[in-house]
Amino acid sequence: MYRLFRIIQRDTMNLITNPMWIFFSLMFPFLLVVILGFLTGGLYGDYFTSYDYYGVTLMLFSTMYAATFSANSFMEEKIKKANLRIVYSPIRNWFIPFSKAVATFIFTTFFYTIVAVICHLLFQIRFGDGKLLQIWLLFIGMNLLFSCIGVLMCCIFKSEGVANQILSILTAALAMLSGFLFPIANLGEAFVKISKWLPTTKVAQTIFEMIYDQNSANFSSVFLMLVAFSVLILAVSTILFNGEEYV
Amino acid sequence: MKPLIEVKQLEKSYKSKKVIHGISFSIYEGEILCLLGPNGASKSTTINILCGALGFDSGEVTCKGAPIDKNLQAFKQQLGVVPQDLALYEDLTAEKNVQFFASLYGLKGKDLEAGVTFALSSVGLTSHRKEKVASFSGGMKRRLNIACALAHRPALLIMDEPTVGIDPQSRNHILNSIRDMQLKGMTVLYTTHYMEEVEEISSRIIIMDHGQIIAEGTKEALKEKNDERKITIEISDSNEISLDSFYQIEGVKEVALNEDELLITSIKGIENLDHIIDKLIRLQQKIQNVVVQEANLETIFLDLTGRSLRD
Question: How many CA atoms does the CB half-sphere of A216 hold within 13 Å?
């Protein structure tokens, strides 16, 4: 476990010492919330403001970008060569994808939490008060899931570029269908039906139910679903990865 | 010497293309084995299989008699690998780089510190241990690339073109380090494009081409196998020369003209230079220069593969 710990530590440090990734992880969700919250301010009331809506949905949208971070930390050219030496060392193959997912999870959880705190302080965005911890767990559950999805994409396509192209399409489609960018009802009945089946929609719904209806009946099932999907995706990634991707 | 590594009938394909065709060889304890071959010879594939980073289709690779794929982790623990590309974290110091990679071999505490000190001193970077890699010259990065493979004191050091693109001073430093490793009992598998490095450090040489071994032995033995020498004579007027008459001289295998140069391939061991010169004088040629070239590794390589090593 000492060797696994060292790899996770190194991967986390690689992310934390990259100014561009820190800037992106802080500014991307913050600017999205500020801009969309400001532009749509007139469409919402005083009790439930545009910032309340987009504070939740766009933070969820940002968690989906964890996939891009994990794909970068897995196969970004600058890091890939040093990672090659890890492949040559006497560690188990599954340590490598596992470590990238965990490091990305730690990184995104840390910086997105900072952004959420700033948004709360600046715009009084409600994140659940008494149910804050459970809502935070759902957010980081999304972080975990998408950190694992990024790793899986790299294991399948064996290239950061291709993985990121696929992930851009996937996150944009999921965000739209989940109503993260605008209400899904605008797209018609068919899209509403599809939206209901998406795990990302379920996460958003559960969070809003917990904030405004004090209803956390779905929390456990949704949280377990996120964890179960993450574990499953990570398991598939570790099976698919055999080190040859780096050689 | 006992074999540390034995490779038997190794085969490897990428999709339907076979890149290694049933090669067999041994690496003996304490030797520096140089693996030579032009681009596309499958040297790197062979090395990556020996590093345990690539699988293979058939055959067997054993370390001290035990198949490496049965206990890959234990095998990798005995290896130090120097990849062709610099595999370093640029934003870390030299010391932190070596520390991190050594920790992957289970080194911690005082052992880790001792390993780092040993590795950095082996490549002459002790005084730069606290400096960031980003500030290093190309040669220093190459030396650190080697140090990262040394801290756990591997039994077998695998080096894939470790001197590419560096200055002669750093190259000499690296070659001296490799000889020191050998004196300390380390076995080295070394690939390079530089024939002079092979001449300088090799205990034995394997020449590969198109995924096959085409020659193997010490440099002396390889040179011995080549029974030719090349004689180049610069003459005054090549128009006056009849090439056929030179074939009457004992030992002459091939004669050609290249502008005012007479190129003669002769069998080694037959002293016929005086007869050749005598014939030229009788043909009233003025001899301006004579070069006799015994077989060297470069010419042997060219003869065997039909290609120059850097092709």
Answer: 15
DSSP secondary structure letters along B137-185: -HHHHHHHHHHTTTTT--SEEEEESTTTT--HHHHHHHHHHHHHHHHTT
Residue of A nearest to B81 (CA): A88
How far is A106 from chain B, CA to nearest CA, in Å? 20
> Chain B: nearest CA to A91, how far in angstroms?
6
Q: pLDDT value at position A159? A: 81
Number of alpha carbons in the 13 Å side-chain half-sphere of residue B91: 10
What ipTM was estimated for this complex?
0.83
* Residue of A84, A92, A244 with shortest CB distance to B54: A244
- Burial (0-12, 13-18, 19+ Cβ within 10 Å), B203: middle
Size of interface A-B (CB pairs under 8 A): 66
Taking only the tens place, the pLDDT of each residue in A149-168 is 999 998 888 888 888 889 99
Strands B252-258 and B261-267: antiparallel
Task: Give A89's contacts in chain B (Cβ within 8 Å).
Answer: 76, 101, 104-105
Given this model, what pLDDT does residue A26 score? 92
pTM above 0.90, yes or no: no
**Edge-to-edge strand ranges of the sheet holding B228-235:** B252-258, B261-267, B228-235, B287-294
| Pairwise CB contact (< 8 Å): B87 & A84 | yes
Q: Closest approach of chain B CAs to the CA of A83, in angstroms?
A: 7
CB contact under 8 A, A2 and B86: no
User: Which amino acid would we find at residue A227?
Assistant: V
- What is residue B250's predicted lDDT score, i.e. its pLDDT? 84
pLDDT averaged per 10 residues, chain A (length 247)? 92 90 91 89 80 89 91 81 87 90 94 92 85 92 94 86 89 89 81 88 91 88 94 92 72
Query: Which residues in chain B are contacts of A3 at CB distance < 8 A?
Result: 103-104, 106
Dmax over Cα atoms in chain A, in whole Å?
60
Residue B310: pLDDT band (50, 70, 90) is low
In which element (H, E) is residue B26 found? strand B17-28
Query: What DSSP letter does each residue of A23-88 carry, written as one string?
Result: HHHHHHHHHHHHHHHHHTGGGS-SSS-HHHHHHHHHHHHHHHTHHHHHHHHHH-HHHHHHHHHHHH
Percent of chain B scored above 70 by pLDDT?
97
Q: Is A155 exposed, middle or buried (0-12, 13-18, 19+ CB in 10 A)?
A: buried
On whether the CB atoms of residues A93 and B53 are closer than 8 A, the answer is no
How far B108 CA lies from chain A's nearest CA (Å)? 9
Using one digit for the tens of pLDDT, what is the confidence trace for B147-174? 999 999 999 999 998 888 888 888 888 8
Residue ranges per domain, chain A?
Answer: 2-245
